[in-house]
Automatic annotation (TrEMBL):
Similarity comment: Belongs to the UPF0718 family.
Record PANTHER family: UPF0718 PROTEIN YCGR
InterPro entries assigned to the protein according to its UniProt record, in alphabetical order: DUF318, UPF0718
Protein's UniProt name: Permease
Main location as per UniProt: membrane
Keywords: Cell membrane, Membrane, Transmembrane, Transmembrane helix
Signal peptide: none
GO cellular component labels: plasma membrane
Keyword Transmembrane part of the UniProt annotation: yes
Segments passing through the bilayer: 20-40, 47-73, 93-119, 131-154, 160-182, 233-259, 265-286, 298-320, 326-347
Source organism: Roseitalea porphyridii
Oxidoreductase found in the keyword field: no
Location in the cell: Cell membrane
Length: 348
């Protein structure tokens, strides 16, 4: 799920018949902000637009690679390979679920029927939790976009944190289940989300997808949809970053989340939880915050907490499982964010 917003880019762009709704799209904001600046603060117009344009153009190679990769995974049917990771022994399933969580080419709504299928066939909750924790944190596009905005140490650190959080969460849930908790897991209903979610066990991946016409069509459709999705959100992210760097005093950021102690990391994790920033918008904004004085550990904690507790990620969990499982998911997420921030700060 990566995460969109957890994960991977939404395969089918939203359509609306309401003309007013167009005003709330990322592109409308991208166009409106420079126009407003040109009227209210014309002396900074060139600097803001130049900053945003240069940052966006610098990210284009990463966007292109990410779009091609996610379209290939979709056309090949990689979901089937990921689904089979949950079969077999529980310990093996936890490990594979945490590893594959960062590769899952799902949008936020697609992960709902995928996990529902796993629950229906009796996959262990521990493995499902490992996947659920890891999936919103990283996917191929998020990895590349994070590297472009914050550098490869951040991107690799977030990927390691995703797998580590998945493994820790999976084995903790395994221990809790063995102790008698989570006797009732599912809510008993399956919500279909956007209707585009795959069955976790149907079919086999076809990595040389170009030999089959319908898979080539899927590749083309995914290529176009993901390119449009990533372009609009990254354009918005870099415009917001330009505003942040220009107008927010560095002393304010440094005072809240600067420094080397535990406090800024905890604050960033707690702020990141309710802050809904998808995985494509957050890295550029955090790049601006780190330039203003935010510590690296605090930035990592914000990235992790925001992805795990984003609205789509929480909706996926709440729609399928009972309150104790949902509470455990959030507790593991915020704790993992703080621990990841502390460890990243120490390493960096």
């Amino acid at each position: 799920m990566s995460t969109v917003e957890t994960g991977s880019a939404q395969a089918t762009p939203e359509r609306t018949t309401n003309p007013l709704a167009v005003l709330a799209t990322p592109w409308a904001i991208v166009i409106a902000v420079p126009l407003i600046i040109s009227f209210l603060d014309p002396s900074r117009f060139d600097a803001i637009v130049g900053f945003a344009a240069a940052a966006f153009l610098g990210t284009l190679p990463y966007i292109a690679f990410a779009v091609i990769l996610i379209a290939w995974l979709k056309a090949a049917g990689a979901e089937a390979a990921i689904g089979r990771a949950f079969e077999g022994r529980e310990t093996r399933a936890i490990v594979l679920a945490a590893l594959f969580g960062g590769l899952a080419p799902f949008c936020s709504c697609e992960v709902i029927p995928f996990i529902a299928g796993l629950l229906a066939v009796g996959a262990p909750l521990s493995a499902i939790m490992a996947f659920w924790l890891a999936s919103p944190l990283i996917d191929p596009p998020t990895l590349l976009i994070t590297a472009a905005a914050l550098g490869w140490p951040f991107a690799i650190g977030k990927a390691v944190a995703a797998v580590g959080l998945g493994l820790a969460g999976g084995f903790i849930v395994k221990a809790l289940t063995a102790g008698g908790l989570f006797t009732s897991v599912s809510r008993g209903t399956v919500r279909k989300g956007c209707g585009c979610g795959p069955s976790p066990f149907d079919g086999r991946p076809v990595w040389r997808f170009w030999a089959e016409g319908h898979r080539t069509d899927i590749f083309s459709a995914e290529l176009r949809a993901n390119a449009a999705f990533l372009a609009q959100w990254l354009a918005l992210a870099y415009v917001l970053e330009a505003l942040l760097v220009t107008y927010v005093p560095a002393s304010l950021i440094a005072g809240l989340v600067g420094g080397e102690g535990l406090g800024p990391i905890v604050v960033s994790a707690l702020v990141g939880m309710p802050a809904y920033l998808n995985s494509y918008v957050a890295p550029p904004l955090l790049a601006g915050l780190t330039e203003q004085g935010m510590s690296d550990g605090a930035a990592m904690a914000f990235l992790i907490a925001g992805a795990v507790s984003s609205i789509p990620a929480m909706a996926a969990v709440w729609s399928l499982v009972r309150a104790p499982v949902f509470a455990t998911y959030l507790a593991l997420g915020v704790t993992g964010a703080i621990v990841s921030g502390v460890l990243f700060q120490m390493v960096v």
